[in-house]
C-alpha cells in the first residue's frame, strides 16, 4: 500500500464531457485519485462508495475519479446520469495516460492518495470498501503520517 510513497502527483490535465478542465498538478490540498472504467465490475461497485466518501471527507480530501474508458464521454455520461452522484465529477482520460503511468498492466480500479504537498502516501490496487469506517480512518491516518 505504501511501496510508492513519495511519488509526485502528475501534472496532467483532464476534461469532463462539458469541456471543463482539471489540472492534477494544481491541486491545493490532499487528493484521492481513483482510476476506473464503466466496464470494470469492481470499479462500478466502488463509485457510489467514493461518492459517499467524498461527502464524508469534504474539506479534508478531494476525491477525483478519472475514467479510463476509451469511449470517454460516450460511456461515462450515461453512467453518471444513471447513478446520480452528488460529489463525483466525470473526468475523462480516453488516452489512458494515468493508467500508463500508474498501472502499465492496466489493472483497475486503482486508487492513490496524495498529501497536500502532492506526494503519494497510499495506493490501493483492486476493489476496496471506500465508504467504510476503516477506509476513512486509513485515509486520515495516511495523511497524518509525516
Helical segment tally? 4
So what's the overall shape?
A: globular
Strand content: 15-25%
Distance between the termini: 16 Å
The largest β sheet comes out as: 5 strands, mixed
Portion of residues within helices: 25-40%
Strand order of the largest sheet: 5-4-3-6-7
Q: Would you list the SSEs in sequence order as H and E?
A: EEEHEHEHEEH
Overall mean pLDDT stands at 93
Number of strands: 7
Uncertain residue segments: none
Q: What does the radius of gyration come to? A: 14 Å
Structural class: alpha/beta
Please characterize this protein's 3D structure.
It is built from four helices and seven strands. It is α/β, with parallel strands linked by helices. The protein has a five-stranded mixed β-sheet. A two-stranded antiparallel sheet has the order 1-2. A hairpin with a 5-residue loop joins strand 6 and strand 7.
Record keyword descriptors for this entry.
146 residues; 4 helices; alpha/beta; five-stranded mixed sheet
Amino acid at each position: 500500500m505504501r511501496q510508492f510513497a513519495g511519488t509526485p502527483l502528475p501534472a496532467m490535465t483532464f476534461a469532463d464531457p462539458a469541456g471543463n478542465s482539471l489540472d492534477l498538478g494544481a491541486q491545493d490540498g490532499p487528493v484521492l485519485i481513483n482510476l476506473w472504467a464503466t466496464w470494470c465490475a469492481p470499479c462500478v461497485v466502488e463509485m457510489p462508495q467514493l461518492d459517499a466518501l467524498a461527502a464524508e471527507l469534504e474539506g479534508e480530501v478531494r476525491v477525483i475519479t478519472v475514467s479510463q474508458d476509451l469511449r470517454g464521454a460516450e460511456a461515462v455520461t450515461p453512467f453518471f446520469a444513471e447513478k446520480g452522484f452528488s460529489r463525483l465529477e466525470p473526468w475523462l482520460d480516453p488516452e489512458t495516460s494515468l493508467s500508463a503511468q500508474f498501472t502499465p498492466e492496466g489493472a483497475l480500479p486503482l486508487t492513490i492518495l496524495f498529501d497536500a504537498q502532492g506526494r503519494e502516501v497510499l495506493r490501493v490496487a483492486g476493489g476496496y470498501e471506500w465508504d467504510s469506517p476503516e477506509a476513512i480512518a486509513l485515509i486520515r491516518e495516511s495523511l497524518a503520517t509525516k
